[in-house]
């Protein structure tokens, strides 16, 4: 299949590590222009510098996805610098698991703000450009936890279910504008995600689970490439994948 990724302007939130970073590296090396947002701007800048040195086109901007104005600035920068916004990958997220009875209210608030509002702000920032272009692709990152819930993961799971619901509503609404929507739901992939768990015993259990089952971030990258590479009249709406050895 011809990679329909070359030349596209792709905004990626949460590009400073894990799935976002791996996707940025791959897409940039295969000819896409990447516009990278996250809070750890040193990491973003060194990634953008490395990609640029290798002949790619990459722009980095400090972005906290819980602030709409910052997400808008990131997407505006993509449009102002490169003339269009073809894809937004709403990927920034965290997973501070803990049983509800521990009342980790700050964790709940951060998870909702980043995982739900961050995705909505990405949609809000990109939609006006995509509507005007009459083309675009919004890719949101959910999780296996967006399909299932387990004790200790209620809030994370709720946010990832929300991402799927928002994505399906969006899919129906953007038909008049020729915009594609994809929600990708990964299982355990080897990234820094377990570091967002604030309860030491829960973090230890999750690290052990990831050590046992997690697969490489390339699995996610291939899912993004598959969705992006379809002909413009083909809209891949959902991709759910797990490590072969993952039971949950
Ligand atoms: N890895 C998995 O097993 C797995 C499975 C299912 C779903 N996912 C989802 O995949 C997405 C990416 O996670 P990952 O696995 O790549 O984990 P990761 O390595 O921890 O990356 C998370 C990214 O999100 C960014 N982020 C967190 N809070 C942010 C904020 N307020 N504003 C902007 N960026 C923020 C982080 O950057 P800064 O800290 O620099 O801001 C980082 O770049 C998440 O939505 C996660 O829920 C992952």
Structure write-up:
The chain is an alpha/beta fold. The chain contains seven helices and seven strands. It has a seven-stranded parallel sheet, sandwiched between helices. Helix 2 links the parallel strand 2 and strand 3. Helix 1 crosses helix 7 and helix 4 packs parallel to helix 5. The protein is globular, with a radius of gyration of 17 Å. The mean pLDDT is 97. NADP nicotinamide-adenine-dinucleotide phosphate binds next to helix 1.
Order of helices and strands: EHEHEHEHEHEHHE
* Count of distinct strands: 7
**Based on CA inertia axes, which overall geometry fits?**
globular
Small molecules (ligands, ions, cofactors) in the structure: NADP nicotinamide-adenine-dinucleotide phosphate
Average predicted confidence as pLDDT: 97
Strand order of the largest sheet: 3-2-1-4-5-6-7
Please bin the fraction of helical residues.
40-55%
Query: Uncertain runs with pLDDT below 50, 5 residues or more?
Result: none
Describe the biggest sheet?
7 strands, parallel
The Cα radius of gyration reads 17 Å
Q: What distance lies between the first and last C-alpha atoms, to the nearest angstrom?
A: 32 Å
Helix tally equals 7
* SS-derived structural category: alpha/beta
> Could you tell me the strand content as a percent range?
15-25%
Helix-strand layout with pairing:
Layout: E1 9-13, H1 18-29, E2 33-38, H2 41-53, E3 57-62, H3 68-82, E4 87-90, H4 105-133, E5 136-141, H5 154-173, E6 179-186, H6 200-213, H7 218-229, E7 238-241
Parallel strand pairs: 1-2, 1-4, 2-3, 4-5, 5-6, 6-7
Helix pairs in contact: 1-7, 3-4, 4-5
């Amino acid at each position: 299949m011809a990679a329909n990724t070359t030349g596209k302007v792709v905004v990626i939130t949460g590009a400073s590590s894990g799935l976002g970073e791996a996707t940025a590296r791959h897409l940039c090396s295969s000819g896409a222009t990447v516009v990278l947002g996250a809070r750890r701007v040193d990491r973003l800048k060194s990634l953008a510098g490395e990609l640029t040195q290798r002949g790619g086109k990459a722009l980095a901007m400090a972005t906290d996805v819980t602030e709409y104005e910052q997400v808008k600035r990131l997407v505006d920068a993509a449009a102002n610098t490169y003339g269009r916004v073809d894809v937004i990958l709403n990927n920034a997220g965290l997973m501070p698991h803990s049983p509800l009875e521990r009342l980790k209210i700050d964790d709940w608030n951060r998870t909702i703000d980043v995982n739900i509002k961050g995705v909505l702000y990405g949609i809000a920032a990109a939609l006006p450009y995509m509507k005007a272009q009459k083309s675009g692709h919004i890719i949101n990152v959910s999780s296996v936890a967006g399909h299932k819930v387990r004790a200790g993961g209620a809030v994370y799971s709720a946010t990832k279910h929300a991402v799927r619901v928002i994505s399906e509503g969006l899919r129906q609404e953007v038909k008049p504008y020729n915009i594609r929507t994809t929600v990708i739901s990964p299982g355990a992939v080897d990234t820094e995600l377990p570091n967002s768990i604030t309860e030491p015993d829960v973090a230890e259990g999750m690290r052990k689970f990831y050590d046992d089952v997690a697969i490489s971030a390339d699995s996610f990258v291939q899912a993004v490439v598959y969705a992006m590479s379809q002909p413009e009249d083909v809209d891949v709406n959902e991709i759910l994948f797990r490590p072969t050895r993952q039971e949950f």
